[in-house]
Amino acid sequence: MKEYTDAKSAKETKNQGGRPGIVIAEAKGLMAESKGGDDFQGAYAKMGIDVNEGAGAGAGAHGNPWGNWGVECFQARIIQCHVENLPPGSRPGNSKIWDKCLQSSSGKTYMFVRTLRTAIHGKVRHAYLLEETAPGSGRYNFLQSEQRAIKEMGLASINSGQLAEDPKTEILVQDRLGIPGCNFVCGLHECTFDARNVYSVLPFCDGGELFDRVEESGALPEQQVKIYFKQIMQGMLYIHQKGICHRDMSLENVLLANSGAIARIIDFGLCLEMTPDANGQPLPFPPSGPVGKMFYMAPEIFMNQTPFHGHLADIWSCGIMLFIMLIGAPPYEQPDAADPRFVKVYQEGPSALLAAWGITNISPQACELLDMMLNAAQPLNRPDAQAVLQHPWMQ
C-alpha cells in the first residue's frame, strides 16, 4: 500500500515563526490622519520613504534607501479615468468612465479590472497600463499587451507586526531582482503608495500557480517536469547570484505565464540577504525559526538547532518541488524523526522511499538528482543551483 498524501494536502499556510531581517517600521500606528487630509509624511517617513507631496504625474517622489539596498517608490492616488477603448457593454450605458485607476507620480496610470486573489496584508489585482491619448487630455486607452498584477497591501496590516512576511523586504528584493532581470523571476515594475496602501506593480502571469497544474493532474509527465524545473532552477540561480535566499520556495510560489509556458518565482517576503565569506561562498545564518511551508521546509530549518545555509535550504525546498511534480504527492508530512517517511529519506534517500512505494516510472537520473538535493544528513553536500542545472537529467 502506498502511504503518502496527495499534493493538495501540501498546500499549507506559512508558519509565522520569528526571523531576523529588515523591520518595516520601529513604531506602530504610522497611519496618521488629520482633518486636513492624510498625513503622507507621518505614515511613510518612518518607513524610509521621502514623500514629495506636491509631485504630480510625471514628477517622481523618490524613496530614501530601505536598509542598505535602496528602492524608489512613487506617491499615487486612486482616481476615476476616461478610457476611450473600453469594449462595448463593459460599463453601464457604454460609459467610458472607469471607476478605479491607480495614478502614479512616475507618470504611469493603471486600470484595475478584477481581484485575482487575496494575499497577506491585502489582495492582488489584475490591471492594465493606460496610455494618455494626448498629453494633459485626461483620456486614456488601455494597452492590451501591457497587463500587470498589482499587489495592494494595507498599512494597518503591515504595521500590526503580526506576520513574519515583510512587504518591505519583498519590495526591496523585487527591486534588486529588477525587470527585465530573469524571465523566471517576478521582478518589480514599480512601487507606489498612498495614505492607506503600498502597491507593488508586477508582471501579470496568466496561468495561475504551478501547484494548481500539479493538483489537476496528480503528477506531470517527466519531460514537462524537466522544462518547468529547469526554469525554476535558472530563476533560483539568478536569485542566489544576487545574494538572496528565498526561504519559501514551493509550487504555490511559482506562477505560470505565457499560457503556461513560463514558470516564474514569486513571494519574497521571507528572503534574507546572504553575506559571502573570503572565498565568495555564502556564510551560514544562525537558527532563525521554522519559516515556510511544512512540506517544503528543510530539516535544519524545521529543527532550528544549528546554523543553516540559506541557498542550500532553498535547494532542499526545490527538491521537494521536484518530487511532488514527478509523483503528485510530498514525500512526508514533517521533516523530523516523528515521521517514518522522513526517517527513510534521511537514512536512505528519496529514491529508496519511491522503491518502497512501488513507484518505478521515474528515470534513474531523476532519482539520482532527488537523492542529491534531498540530502538531509549532510546539507553541505547538497548541490548548489549551478550544479543542479549541470546535472545530466537537466540536459
Ends distance? 34 Å
CATH fold title of the largest domain: Transferase(Phosphotransferase), domain 1
CATH H-level superfamily of the largest domain: Transferase(Phosphotransferase) domain 1
* Average pLDDT, all residues: 84
| Class by alpha and beta content | alpha+beta
The helix-strand sequence is: EEEHEEEEEHHEEHHEEEEEHHHHHH
3D architecture notes:
The protein is α+β, with helices and mostly antiparallel strands and 395 residues long. It has two domains: 7-17 and 206-394, Transferase(Phosphotransferase) domain 1 (Transferase(Phosphotransferase), domain 1), CATH 1.10.510; 33-203, Phosphorylase Kinase, domain 1 (2-Layer Sandwich). It is 26% helix and 22% strand. It is built from eleven helices and 15 strands. It has helices spanning 40-44, 155-158, 167-177, 210-217, 222-241, 299-303, 310-327, 340-348, 350-357, 364-373, 385-390; strands spanning 15-16, 33-34, 37-38, 73-83, 97-104, 109-119, 122-132, 139-154, 190-193, 197-203, 244-245, 254-257, 262-265, 272-273, 291-292. The strands form five sheets. Strands 4, 5, 6, 7, 8, 9 and 10 form a seven-stranded mixed β-sheet that branches. Strands 1-15 form a two-stranded antiparallel ribbon. Strand 7 (122-132) and strand 8 form a beta hairpin. The radius of gyration is 23 Å and the shape is elongated. The two termini are 34 Å apart.
Quick gist of this model?
This protein has 395 residues and is α+β, with helices and mostly antiparallel strands. Helices cover 26% and strands 22% of the residues.
